[in-house]
Amino acid sequence: MKSEFKARPVYLSNNDRIEAHFTTCFISLIIYRLLEKMLNENFTCYEIISGLKDMNFYEVKGEGYIPTYTRTDFTDALHEAFGFRTDYQIVNTSQMKKIFRETKR
User: Fold this and answer.
1) Domain boundaries, the chain
2) What pTM was computed for the model?
């Protein structure tokens, strides 16, 4: 997992910056662990991180978003876990806003 998160030495001396960096790293790890649990621990750290990095969209002004990623077992499991799909066709702007609202709960 360390290599997936690209852990390396951090050269900070200001206490506020050290705490901010630690907090960011800790929250990232918590989010990763929650996602791993939601996916029933069926995917490796590498599969989760690379799968999320690959999930990009192309914005068509006035229309919405076209998924530019390839559908995989990971994306299917992710859609199943969160109860929405983004891989079929263009996702209009109002649908994307709804997805963002639902994921913030």
Assistant:
1) 15-103
2) 0.72
